[in-house]
């Protein structure tokens, strides 16, 4: 049986990590979801996705992902959601080279879903606008739309109201504590601050960069507390999302690398550049301008 269409994707598609540079919990909706204010910035550390179009409509994941059954995989769910929204009869083989830690607050799963939507919208020729793709993205996860739009953003609501922002693009040292934090458990915690006052972007830009989840996460997850304390010695550690990853910013790459080399052996650590534009958008631009060059690379 033949299943390949003529459109073979060739090179991989990047799915970058995000950092929440601040996060305020400003209210709670009737459905239990929390209203947030947050700032998203991308970093140049990425999962890589390979997508091969199939002409039989089947969407498959190639390879395993620890603890995530194929039907639950956000890439598979994203591809199926795009099929459903557009009536497209093409399918895809999806392979993900996982670099980003899962459940670490770096948004890897959400980013994988967004990259799948953006790439298949191109490869399948479904031609949805960014707004239409973002609508399909939101039910897959609150962080998926920002990855679809690919611009650093000031976000409100559950993360669906996005305003692009132009931020400094420093270097970040990211530490990956040896524990996984459940987003659900943090939002269910009785001691979580849920009534922070709303601030303006200007307040954040002048230094108001609190993460309201930090006190609870610090108390419940000692490896996160230790990682933050260690980063504080380098000028201030911050939590991304609900964790577990923590980060510190550096003006100079060499200084970030020095800190990375000094990190305790028990911690995984990496240095990455802050980005206001997702590498996914650059990849899409390249594909549109010169698809043959990418296929050959
Ligand atoms: C808080 C953020 C910031 O980026 O954290 P990270 O997951 O990246 O750490 C995200 O918006 C997370 O969004 P998302 O990834 O969709 O959250 P999920 O894992 O689906 O949420 C798990 C559970 O947490 C609760 N939840 C989540 C988001 C929110 N704004 N309010 C909530 O109350 C809900 O009970 C939900 O069922
Ligand atoms: N392709 C995927 N990559 C990562 N996680 C996935 C994927 N598909 C589903 N998941 C599920 O989504 C959860 C959250 O993943 P992730 O986005 O990496 O973390 P976070 O939301 O903390 O930033 C994982 O623990 C996993 O159960």
UniProtKB/TrEMBL annotation:
It comes from the Bacteria. Keywords: ATP-binding, Isoprene biosynthesis, Kinase, Nucleotide-binding, Transferase. Signal peptide: none annotated. Residues 211-267 form the GHMP kinase C-terminal domain. The keyword Ribosomal protein does not apply. GO terms for molecular function: 4-(cytidine 5'-diphospho)-2-C-methyl-D-erythritol kinase activity; ATP binding. Residues 74-150 form the GHMP kinase N-terminal domain. It catalyses: 4-CDP-2-C-methyl-D-erythritol + ATP = 4-CDP-2-C-methyl-D-erythritol 2-phosphate + ADP + H(+). It holds the Pfam family GHMP_kinases_N. Pathway: Isoprenoid biosynthesis; isopentenyl diphosphate biosynthesis via DXP pathway; isopentenyl diphosphate from 1-deoxy-D-xylulose 5-phosphate: step 3/6. It is an enzyme of class 2 (transferase). The keyword Heme does not apply. Its EC number is 2.7.1.148. The active site is at residues 18, 143. SUPFAM superfamilies: GHMP Kinase, C-terminal domain, Ribosomal protein S5 domain 2-like. GO terms for biological process: isopentenyl diphosphate biosynthetic process, methylerythritol 4-phosphate pathway; terpenoid biosynthetic process. ATP binds at residues 101-111. Belongs to the GHMP kinase family. IspE subfamily. HAMAP family: IspE. Catalyzes the phosphorylation of the position 2 hydroxy group of 4-diphosphocytidyl-2C-methyl-D-erythritol. This is 4-diphosphocytidyl-2-C-methyl-D-erythritol kinase. It comes from Imhoffiella purpurea. The gene is ispE.
């Amino acid at each position: 049986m033949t299943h390949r269409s003529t459109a073979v994707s060739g090179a991989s598609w990047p799915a970058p990590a995000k950092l929440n540079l601040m996060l305020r919990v400003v209210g709670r909706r009737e459905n239990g979801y929390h209203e947030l204010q947050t700032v998203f910035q991308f970093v140049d550390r990425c999962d890589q996705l390979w997508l091969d179009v199939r002409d039989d409509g089947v969407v498959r994941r190639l390879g395993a992902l620890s603890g995530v059954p194929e039907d639950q995989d956000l890439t598979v769910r994203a591809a199926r959601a795009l099929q459903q929204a557009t009536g497209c009869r093409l399918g895809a083989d999806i392979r993900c080279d996982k670099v980003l830690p899962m459940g670490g607050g770096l948004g890897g799963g959400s980013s994988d879903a967004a990259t799948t939507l953006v790439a298949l919208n191109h490869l399948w020729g479904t031609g949805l606008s960014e707004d239409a793709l973002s609508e399909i993205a939101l039910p897959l996860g609150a962080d998926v739309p920002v990855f679809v739009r690919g611009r650093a953003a000031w976000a409100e609501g559950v993360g669906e109201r996005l305003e692009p922002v132009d931020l400094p693009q420093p270097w970040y040292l990211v530490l990956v504590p040896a524990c996984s934090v459940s987003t659900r458990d943090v939002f269910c915690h009785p001691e979580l601050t849920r009534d922070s006052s709303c601030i303006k972007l200007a307040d954040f830009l002048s230094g108001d960069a609190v993460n309201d989840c930090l006190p609870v996460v610090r108390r419940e997850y000692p490896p996160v507390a230790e990682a933050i304390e260690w980063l504080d010695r380098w000028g201030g550690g911050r939590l991304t999302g609900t964790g577990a990853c923590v980060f510190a910013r550096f003006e100079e790459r060499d200084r970030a690398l020095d800190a990375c080399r000094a990190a305790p052996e028990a911690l995984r650590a990496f240095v990455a550049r802050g980005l206001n534009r997702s590498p996914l958008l650059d990849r899409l631009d390249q594909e549109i301008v010169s698809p043959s060059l990418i296929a050959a690379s």
